[in-house]
Amino acid sequence: MAVLNRMDWYDLARSTNWTPTYVTEDELFPPQLSGAFGLPQNAWEKYDEPYKQTYPEYVKVQRDKDAGAYSVKAALERSRIFENADPGWKSVMKAHYGAIARGEYAAASAEARMMRFSKAPGMRNMSTLGCMDEIRHGQMQLYFPHEHVSKDRQMDWAFKAYDTNEWAMIAARHFFDDIMMTRDAISVSIMLTFSFETGFTNMQFLGLAADAAEAGDHTFANLISSIQTDESRHAQIGGPALKILIENGQKAEAQKRVDIAVWGAWKLFSVLTGPIMDYYTPLEHRKQSFKEFMEEWIVAQFERALTDMGLELPWYWDIFLKDIAETHHGMHLGSYYWRPTVWWNPAAGVTPAERDWLEEKYPGWNDTWGQCWDVIIDNVVDGNMALAYPETLPYVCNMCQLPILGTPGKNWNVKDYPLEYKGRLYHFGSEVDRWVFEQEPERYAGHLSIVDRFLAGMIQPMNLEGALAYMNIAPGEMGDDAHNYAWAEVYRALRETRKAG
Amino acid sequence: MALFPLTSNFEGDFVLQLVAVDTENTMDEVAAAAAVHSVGRRVRARPGHILRIRRQGADEFLPRTMKVAESGLKPTETVEVIWQMPHG
């Protein structure tokens, strides 16, 4: 018997909607889980996924991808890449695995919600594959770091970060809980797949893969490139859903979800990916600056994806374009200064050569962030280490849960964006963070930031020791300078030269 | 006498910070408490300057001897800590 070509049967075979007779449509697809939008089943049957793949095809392709990534790992296991890597690169791996691995497992649950509750048959099929993708990503990104746990306690955070109250993890959880764990199927497709994955995972997975290959870490480069091939497929789940919403008069609701998710993703990437690309990756291995990556992948490509879809650029686009040259410098300075509270060892990345690079990529860096670093460098060179560590908490945003910061030094523009809601004073890091809160205050109002928890007496004793215990940072895991301040030697030498001169 | 949390936005620094003061503290004392977490850490001292406190966005500084309890500041409200040349 002749076998039909896939395209001769795919649309028919995956069109599994039927008219329920024993239950109502709302019982079969509860609006809270399916996404209300007032559209009946048959409107969603027009959903046309751009990437059509059958289950046997998926299994075959995924098997090949796994074989590739796992065999590179096996071949290079004895190469001592981890032992010989620059400490800054080790920090990249630690930050990545901790922030990402368990989030991938969580994403499998979000995909599963689309798989069961979306009224669009095509979406159900794509997210079946997407769900398995996310399980694969979770498994790989837990298996790959495991070989390093016995060498370095901070690597254990690949496994435990999501279960802790570490501040950056509170921020990551707050974001992912908002866009994927507590949204209906259609909103997940817009916020997780279209906004976060199309927009931002290219940054983490392609940008970082390029840096990894440059740094000689081919295992990591292959791993995350392999993951990105899945991301670029299942990121397309949201596009056709947006099309249907726009065609049915729901553009404003669709746009709002895009605007909320893109901003949250941006803030998270500003603390995770920005410092990695512009400070941790050894200078000679940097392919592009964070801003250049953002301009290529977000400004150029994602902007086009939005407008092709018939959506507008988010209302805050001008703010965003300005922030991509600024915010991550503050996030780096913050995570460096508060380094005992992270599970990796931040690389300062401020030798004279690195500062020249920063000044070239970000004109004015020396007169702004550089001014703060000058004081830190003096303290390190002079041995005033007490002043090189914090004695209080940075105030964090009640939306993104990250420090409220701006540009220091000569262009000082730091600002709070406060809001009083039902008698409580909330603080936000930007007009956009505050706007997100105002869209649905009750959704966010009950959450306590790490500072709110401190003020509520939930962190005891009220000092660094209490904060570290609260954040589940065990002895031996606390972050410190990646290079044990070896970079300060060049400044010491410069000072000696100046004295001699 | 009661502990009172404020948020410090220190001129020249990059981040807002939590500062614990007392309702009986004067604005000069609030400025000094905020300086502990910025000056000599990420902001250079400015010899010959004093530090003044103002509400975010306000043009006028709060009087130097005004107490926190008299200021109308709310717990965790952000104050700007600004360098000023005396009589300048």
Automatic annotation (TrEMBL), chain B:
Keywords attached to this entry: Monooxygenase, Oxidoreductase
Transmembrane region(s): none
Calcium recorded as keyword: no
InterPro entries: TmoB-like_sf (IPR036713), Toluene_mOase_B (IPR009355)
Record GO terms (molecular function): monooxygenase activity
One Pfam family matching this protein: TmoB
Protein name: Toluene monooxygenase
